[in-house]
Amino acid sequence: MREAALLRDGKIILSITLIFVLCLLARQSHAYVKALTAPGHPLVLILDQEDHIIRKAFLRSPEGVRPLKQIEQHTLLSDSYIFLNADSDFLGDLVWRIELRKPKSEETISLWITSVTEASTVWLALAPAGSSLWEIFPALPNGREDVFLYIAPQLPEYRALGKKSGPETLTFIYTMLLTKNGPKLAAIPEIYTQLLPLAALVRKAQEDKSLEEAYGELFNDFNRMACGNMPSREAMNNFLWERILTVRWKR
Fold this sequence. Notes:
This protein is of the alpha+beta class and 251 residues long. It has one domain (30-248). The protein has helices at 2-28, 189-205, 209-226, 233-237; strands at 31-37, 44-50, 53-61, 64-67, 75-84, 93-101, 108-116, 121-129, 147-151, 154-155, 164-165, 173-179, 182-185, 242-248.
């Protein structure tokens, strides 16, 4: 009788354990860890996800592991990177863009991760993202090895026009200079000189009077920056680039 009872109890415990393990495995089947890397740089973006939602996020570097609470509850859409030459060590300096969808929203943001090898530093920033009319044009030739473009998803609020965005809107392009102190907004004349005829073309084809006037202001801002000057107050207010973390390590 005692042996039978022990056997019965053992089967019950085994059944409970098996059910627990199966439930745990079923739960974990929707949860996984994704590690994103960029070649040649000692950086790893670690995402703990469940049902494609980021539960926890961390940046691993030679300095250690840092949490990134700012992108928790977001959905990963894509990541891409380019390499620039912002220093003198002939190693590619990183511009890494991770596109994310905000929770319970169709709005997107980009996590920008930039790193200069000679500085042994990484800078992280968040900025709004989205489609614009610029996507129909071929990529602009960039003769600078230390510059990248940030295309804002909205047009500056010129002449109290209000917010204009979307795939049919010509939005503002900001030139970002990658330096040993991190990326910064800068007027790069050779880039804006190429943008001027495109902005003029879209303005000329615009039938909406208020939008035509706004594109005229956009053209004027691009012209200012083609001359090496900074843009209007509206354009600066439209620049929503927010640095969230800087990490340095010993070489």
